[in-house]
UniProtKB/TrEMBL annotation:
GO terms for cellular component: endoplasmic reticulum lumen. The chain crosses the membrane at residues 21-37. Pfam families: Sep15_SelM. It is found in: Endoplasmic reticulum lumen. This is Selenoprotein F. Keywords: Endoplasmic reticulum, Membrane, Selenocysteine, Signal, Transmembrane, Transmembrane helix. PANTHER family: SELENOPROTEIN F (PTHR13077).
Amino acid sequence: MPIPVRQCSIGREREREMGRLLIHALFLLAVPLISIAEQLSSKECENLGFTGLALCSDCNTFAEYVKNQELVSDCLKCCTEDSDDSMSKIIYSGAVLEVCMRKLVFYPEIVGFIEEEKEKFPSVKVQYVFNSPPKLIMLDDDGQYKETIRVDNWKREHILQFLKEKVKPTSSAI
């Protein structure tokens, strides 16, 4: 009769483990649902150190390495839902290229874009802000800030390609 007792203890142990796995799985499913309801503005995300370009799957990977639940929660509040076309569907009505005039000497690609390419994008304005790293602030139809993207390491052709894909073309016909 010791064999059935042993099988029962193994069965209880397996049952407990399955219960823990189920709770863990439910938590992983619930966190993204909570984060969708609590999305933060792009300014709030930027202040937290997130650009809004992270996919929610990146936050889940991040959670595997970082045990700070508040940080993971902030990431999930600032991420973009994963899908094949999630980023390609977003189109903005304009942008502001924000940069510090004193630091431009360190960013020849940005200078090249401003001097030689910027006129191709009438809905993109250059704004000089003291001590600001180069960034594109994407605008919605109402001119409100929607997303901020650091471009300090981008090449001119990357800026051109990004703006061609992400900013609505303006009609030049009068």
